[in-house]
Design goal:
Shape: flat
CATH architecture of the largest domain: 3-Layer(aba) Sandwich
Number of helices: 25
Oligomer: single chain
Radius of gyration: 51 Å
Structural class: alpha/beta
Number of domains: 4
CATH superfamily of the largest domain: P-loop containing nucleotide triphosphate hydrolases
Number of strands: 12
CATH class of the largest domain: Alpha Beta
CATH topology of the largest domain: Rossmann fold
Largest sheet: 8 strands, mixed
Strand order of the largest sheet: 5-12-11-6-10-7-9-8
Length: 748
C-alpha cells in the first residue's frame, strides 16, 4: 500500500496556539538518500564538471620531471679543529638540533646559493628561466625585477625536506627537461657544501687567532681570582661549609624552621580539637575521637532512646520498665558527661604541650636568625668570588686543551655533510598523474556537489515527505498520495483501463474512478480508512478538506475521496464550498449555473444537486454555483448551518472542498461545525511556516483537526518505500494488486 493509514498518536489540545518545537534528528542514511534523489542533477552536473577539469589537467598540462638527491647533515659531528663546538655551546646555548637543521635547510634555499647555481649552469638561456628575458634580454647583469623572477622560478620548483626520523635531507627540483632537473639538483647540493666549508674554515681561523691573544690574560685572571677567594675565606673565618656551599648556620636555620612549621601545624590541630571539646557536643567529640569510650556510650544511648520510645508508645508513661529505661538513660548520660570531661582535659593538656613546644622552637629560630644575619653578607661575597674563580678556571682549562689540539690539527677542516645519493635523470614525469587528476576531479566535483546540495537543502523550507510533515506539525499523516506523472511512467495502461478512462470523460487525475487499482487510488482508499478509523463508535459524516494556499490539490483529492466513499455504497455528497474559485464543476464536467451559492441565496432548489457518474448514483456533487459577491458572509450564515444539518440526515458522508485558509477566512467559519478536518500538504510546494499557521488558525476556532494528507509525493523519498527498487509492488499494469480485488468486490 502506497498511502499509509496512521492512527493519531495523540490528540492535539484544542487550546494549543503557536508552533510546537519540531522534532530534529540526526542526518540518517535515509535522509542522505532523499537529498541525493532530490538534488541528483546538482550531483551529476558537478561530477561531470570535476571530471572534465580533471581530464583537462591530465591531458593538457606540461609534463614535469623531478630529480632528487639525499644528503646527511650531522650537526653533532666535529667539523673542524674542535674549537667551534665550544664556541657554539657558549653562544648558541640550548638550541635544538631540529632548529639548527631547519636553519641549514634555509641556507640551502638562500638567494646566494640559488644565484650561484643559476650562474654556474647558465640557466638564463634554459626554459622556463629564459621566459624572464623575453622583454629585456640578458646582458651579463640582472635587473632587480629579473633577479626576483629568477629566484621565484627556482624557489617555486625546489623542494627541500627532512626525511622523518633521520638527519637525511632530500633535495628535489622539478623541470620540464629531465636533464635540467638533474643538473640543478646536484648543483644546489654542491653549492651548499662549498659555502658551508668556506664559512666553517673562515670562522675557525678567526676564532683561533683571537683565542691565542686572550689566553695569557685569562691565565693571570684565574690566578688572581683563586688567591682572592682564599684570602677572603681566611679574613672572614668562613668554616664549616656544606657540600652545596652553605654554612652550618644556614643548615641549622633550615632545620629549625622546618621543625617550627611542624610544631605549629601540630598546635593548630590540637587547638582545634580542644575547642571542639569545649563545645561539649558528643557527636563532634566522637568524630575527632572515634575509638574512645564516648563512641560506645553514644551508641548505647541511641539504643536506649529507641527502646524508651517504643515502650512509651506501647505501654504509656507509667510502665515500670519505662522507669527503668529512664534510669539507664540517666546513667549513660552521666557517663557521657564524664567521658566528655576526660576528653576535654586530655585535649587541653595536649594543646598546652604543643604551645610550649612551639614557643621553644620559635625562640631557638630567633637565635639562629641573628647568627645568620651576621654571616649572610660574608657568605654572599664569598659565593661571588668562588663562582668567578671556578668559571675562569674551567674556561682556561677548556681553551688550553682546544688550543693544544689546534697545534696538531691545524689546517684540517672536515665537513659534516655527506652526499648519500646524487640526483640521477628521472625516467618518467611525476605530473600530470592522469588517474590521480581524474580521481581528484571526481572527488572535488562530488564534494562540491554535496556542499551545494546541503546548502540548497538547508534553504529549502518546503515539505517533501510525510515524515517532514509529522515532525513539523505534530499531526499524524493520514495518507500519502503519489505523484501521478511518475505513476503513469512506471506502468503501461491495460486496454480495459484505457477504455474506461476514455468512456468516463473525467480528467486523468480522478484515479479513484479511472484507475481504481492504481497506486494513487490505493492512497485515497488509505485516506478513507484513516478517516473511518478515527472514530470507531461513530463514523464522521461531515469531512472538511483545506490547505494553506490554492493549487495544492484540494479539489482533486476531494473528488477522489468522494468516489472512494461512494464505492462503499454509502450516500456521499461532495460540496464545493470555495465560492470564489471552486473547480469541482470542471472536474466532473457539470453545469455551474446552480450550486451552493444559489442554494444559500434561495435562488435554486434540488436542481443544484447533480449525479455526474451514472454508475455511481449514490455520489452527489454540489458545485459552487455563480461567484457570490460576499462568500464569507454566506458560508457563515444560518442558512449554511441549516444546510449542513439537512445533509447530515440525508447523506452518510459529506465532503467539503473548501478554500485555502491563509488567503481568505471562509474555511474558518465552517471548521467548527464539521466532524473532522484535515489539511492537504502538497510535497515540494507547501512551506513549513504556512502549515504551522494553518494548524494554529484551525485550532483557534476549535476545529477537530484529524491530521494531514501529503499530496503529489515522490515515493522514492518516503523511507518506508526503500525496501525495493520498485515502489509499485502489487500494481503492475494497473491490475488488481495485493488484496484489491477482494476489497472492491465486498464493497460493491
Amino acid at each position: 500500500m502506497q498511502g499509509q493509514a496512521i492512527t493519531p498518536k495523540h490528540e492535539m489540545p484544542s487550546g494549543l496556539i503557536g508552533n510546537l518545537p519540531p522534532e530534529r534528528s540526526i542526518l540518517t542514511p535515509s535522509d542522505l538518500r532523499k537529498i541525493v534523489l532530490k538534488r541528483r542533477w546538482i550531483f551529476i552536473s558537478f561530477i561531470l564538471l570535476g571530471t572534465i577539469l580533471g581530464l583537462a589537467v591530465a591531458f593538457l598540462s606540461t609534463p614535469q620531471y623531478e630529480a632528487a638527491a639525499n644528503i646527511d647533515i650531522d650537526l653533532s659531528r666535529s667539523t673542524n679543529i674542535g674549537i667551534n663546538n665550544l664556541i657554539q655551546q657558549r653562544l648558541i646555548g640550548e638550541d635544538s638540533a631540529s632548529e639548527r637543521l631547519l636553519t641549514e635547510i634555509q641556507i640551502m634555499r638562500s638567494d646566494t646559493v640559488l644565484l650561484n647555481v643559476i650562474h654556474s649552469l647558465d640557466l638564463y638561456h634554459k626554459k622556463p628561466f629564459s621566459n624572464v628575458f623575453r622583454k629585456n634580454p640578458y646582458t651579463g647583469t640582472l635587473t632587480p625585477a629579473q633577479r626576483a623572477a629568477l629566484l621565484e622560478a627556482m624557489s617555486g620548483n625546489l623542494k627541500i625536506m627532512v626525511l622523518p626520523g633521520t638527519n637525511l635531507v632530500q633535495v628535489k627540483f622539478r623541470n620540464p627537461d629531465p636533464k635540467v632537473a638533474t643538473s640543478v639538483t646536484n648543483a644546489i647540493v654542491d653549492a651548499y657544501m662549498e659555502r658551508d666549508l668556506r664559512a666553517r674554515y673562515e670562522g675557525t681561523s678567526r676564532i683561533s687567532n683571537w683565542l691565542s691573544g686572550q689566553l695569557s690574560a685569562l691565565k693571570t685572571q684565574v690566578q688572581e681570582a683563586q688567591q682572592a677567594v682564599s684570602k677572603y675565606q681566611r679574613d672572614n673565618n668562613l668554616v664549616g661549609m656544606t657540600v652545596d656551599g652553605d654554612s652550618l648556620v644556614a643548615e641549622n636555620l633550615r632545620t629549625v624552621s622546618q621543625q617550627l612549621a611542624e610544631a605549629e601545624a601540630d598546635r593548630i590541630v590540637k587547638e582545634a580539637r580542644y575547642k571542639l571539646a569545649q563545645t561539649r557536643n558528643p557527636e563532634l567529640l566522637a568524630s575527632v575521637a572515634p575509638g574512645t569510650t564516648l563512641t560506645s556510650l553514644r551508641q548505647q544511648q541511641s539504643e536506649l532512646m529507641v527502646e524508651y520510645a517504643q515502650l512509651k508508645a506501647k505501654y504509656g508513661s507509667e510502665w515500670p520498665k519505662l522507669k527503668e529505661a529512664e534510669k539507664q538513660l540517666s546513667t549513660v548520660q552521666s557517663n557521657i558527661d564524664t567521658e566528655i570531661n576526660n576528653l576535654t582535659n586530655k585535649f587541653q593538656e595536649e594543646y598546652n604541650a604543643a604551645v610550649s613546644t612551639e614557643n621553644l622552637l620559635r625562640s631557638r629560630l630567633d637565635q639562629i636568625k641573628q647568627e645568620a644575619y651576621r654571616t649572610n653578607a660574608s657568605e654572599a661575597e664569598f659565593d661571588i668570588l668562588k663562582h668567578g674563580a671556578d668559571s675562569a678556571s674551567d674556561l682556561y682549562d677548556a681553551l688550553q686543551t682546544k688550543l693544544k689540539e689546534a697545534g696538531i690539527t691545524a689546517g684540517l677542516n672536515s665537513n659534516n655533510i655527506d652526499v648519500i645519493d646524487r640526483a640521477t635523470e628521472p625516467a618518467r614525469p611525476i605530473s600530470p598523474k592522469k588517474r590521480v587528476d581524474l580521481g581528484v576531479g571526481l572527488a572535488g566535483g562530488l564534494l562540491l556537489g554535496i556542499l551545494i546540495a546541503l546548502v540548497m537543502e538547508s534553504l529549502d523550507d518546503t515539505l517533501r515527505t510525510s515524515e517532514d510533515v509529522e515532525a513539523l506539525s505534530g499531526l499524524p499523516s493520514l495518507a500519502v498520495i503519489p505523484h501521478f506523472g511518475a505513476q503513469r511512467k512506471a506502468a503501461v495502461l491495460s486496454p480495459e483501463t484505457a477504455a474506461a478512462v476514455h468512456k468516463s470523460g473525467l480528467p486523468a487525475e480522478i484515479v479513484s474512478y479511472n484507475e481504481p487499482h492504481s497506486i494513487g487510488a490505493e492512497g485515497y482508499r488509505t485516506l478513507r480508512s484513516s478517516i473511518l478509523l478515527s472514530s470507531v463508535d461513530r463514523e464522521p459524516r461531515i469531512i472538511l478538506m483545506t490547505s494553506s494556499y490554492a493549487a495544492e490539490g484540494k479539489s482533486t483529492c476531494a473528488a477522489n475521496l468522494a468516489i472512494s466513499f461512494a464505492r462503499r455504497n454509502a450516500r456521499v455528497l461532495l460540496v464545493d464550498t470555495d465560492l470564489r474559485k471552486g473547480t469541482l464543476h470542471l472536474k466532473f464536467k457539470t453545469s455551474n449555473r446552480a450550486g451552493l451559492s444559489t442554494l444559500l441565496a434561495r435562488e435554486s432548489g434540488e436542481e443544484a444537486y447533480e449525479h455526474p457518474l451514472p454508475d455511481m448514483p449514490n455520489l452527489t456533487v454540489l458545485t459552487r454555483g455563480p461567484i457570490a459577491p460576499n462568500p464569507g458572509e454566506m458560508l457563515a450564515s444560518r442558512s449554511m448551518e441549516d444546510l449542513m444539518l439537512q445533509w447530515r440526515m440525508e447523506y452518510d458522508h459529506i465532503i467539503l472542498d473548501t478554500s485555502p485558509v491563509l488567503p481568505v477566512a471562509d474555511t474558518l467559519s465552517l471548521a467548527p461545525h464539521v466532524d473532522v478536518v484535515f489539511v492537504l500538504v502538497r510535497a515540494g510546494v507547501t512551506r513549513k511556516k504556512a502549515l504551522l499557521k494553518v494548524r494554529d488558525q484551525l485550532l483557534r476556532v476549535n476545529a477537530r483537526l484529524l491530521g494531514t494528507v501529503v499530496n503529489d509525493v515522490d515515493l522514492r523519498l518516503e523511507n518506508y518505500y526503500t525496501y525495493s527498487k520498485r515502489y509499485d509492488y502489487g500494481y503492475e499494469g494497473y491490475g488488481a494488486g495485493y488484496g484489491v480485488q477482494d476489497v472492491e468486490k465486498s464493497e460493491k
